[in-house]
Amino acid sequence: MRLALALIAVFALVVVAAPARAEIEVNVNRGDVQPLPIAIPPFGGPQGPDIAGVISANLQRSGLFRPLDPSSFVEHDLDPAVQPRFPLWKQINAQALLNGQVTQQGGQLRVAFRLWDVNAEQQLLGLEFTSTPDNWRRIAHKISDAVYERLTGEKGYFDTRVVFVAESGGRGAKVKRLAIMDQDGANPSYLTDGSFIVMTPRFSSTSQEITYMALRPQGSSVYLFNLETGRRESLGQFPGMVFAPRFSPDGSKVAFSVEHAGNSDVYVMDLHNRSSVRLTSDPAIDTSPSFSPDGRSIVFNSDRSGSPQLYVMGADGSNPHRISFGDGRYTTPVWSPTGEYIAFTKQTGGEFHIGVMKPDGSDERILTSSYLDEGPTWAPNGRVLMFAREAANGASRLWTVDVTGRILQPVPYPLGGSDPAWSPLLQ
Amino acid sequence: MVSIPDRKTALRLALVATAAASMAACASHPKPAYPTTRPPAAAPAPRGETAPPPAPVSQAALPGSEQDFVINVGDRVYFDFDKFQIRPDAQPILDAQSAWLSKYPAVTVRIEGNCDERGTREYNLALGARRANAVRDYLVAHGVASGRITTISYGKEKPIDPGSGDEADQHNRNAHTAITGGAAAR
What we know:
The complex is a heterodimer of chains A (427) and B (186). Chain A is mostly beta strands.
């Protein structure tokens, strides 16, 4: 697996040196935001239209942008070195314009692009990315992130991958394979052969390593798997089942559940010396741990009150306290990368929901409802959640919803999937 | 040892029929009478009008065999939603399992805890482990040596009923006692 990618951002193309204030901006905090109309004409040169298409699809799916229909464009064959004719873009109500040019030389693909504020007649960005031609989608994702960040003021999440469980076959006969793909469903590849059950993969903050659980009749195992080297190692033997692994934010530890004689508790292992510490000792089910981004706290799932609810404790197991008090069963808590929210699965009224709440349990908001929604994972900027939605017939697909609950859509991966985990931004 | 003639297919068909009848007979009220792990075999296609009917073959499960356990004892007990307590209707089956395992002390078993899909994956793994251990504890309390029993939870990963709804959910909330060694050969 080739992850060491030569992506070079060259800022020399920025011709407008003064940090002129742009008039357009996208407010990511408003649930009722009107998507920003943006014109993305096909880039010139080899694979230019494909690159523009990937960028357009990314921005559209974010819900914050409305890419305009290219058939409405009046000016064609734009040269990024030349200022566009702004009136022709104003007349189709474009507020932003992204144009680019692809050149191939010496086995490298070079993509130069500029982002313009149409009404202010200003350049907002001028960059180029260079990589190998087979890496054109990553260049498109990096350009998408650059545009997103310039117009929203927040980091993007397009140059990321998702590790998940690819599913085939019907309920009761499902074949489950560990899989990884780009966040937009492209480039899927499969890391296990389906001969045993895999579940709940999670990324390390370095994104080069994942942890996941394998389940065989002989028992369960938690593995660390380095995506770059292919090296796979077990966390070790435990008296009962071991499951629900997650990395700490610095990647130095893994929290997980160990079951012994029917009782599941949360443990944490230091990956340097492989020593484990038990963090909970309640006779109830304690599982699904998730670290806060500062590494100081862990949110987890416990039925110690009689039904599954969410609890927060110190990373050393101190002071566990319940944070979920709504009507229903709460499971799969996941702390957001910004620390602002905890996402969860909630079961109430015969339906399953994905929701978010503040880490103190306040401000609960339900974002989705269906027969079976489960297992949210955060985009690295904390703006979008991916989760699995299973229909009553057993077919499970990956979906995304933004944190306002406004933009709900299936991931454009054509096959079945569950247990998604979003990577950090790639390096 | 009973020697089995070379008519495995016919025997297996008869065996399945017996198993189904046995399970149906056991079923009372909402207690599920779900067939065990072996899917029913397809009926043989009719050949021709002149073909004579096959001679009847009587069969019975070999004592001490896996079939004996599945048919005459019962290899699966069921649970209420989000519960792992042994229900009254499960006790006779587990009592029979204990007695059978005492009679055949070479047999080892794996108790597999299963859940319906109306719960999330990791919670259900923990819940299935509770169910498997509840059955294990029951068998041990009734004289089965703990060293003969292993447990595993499949959570909601291995539903025996592919449907959805209350009936399928009830079928899928179970603990299955799988024989892992020491049973009489078929």
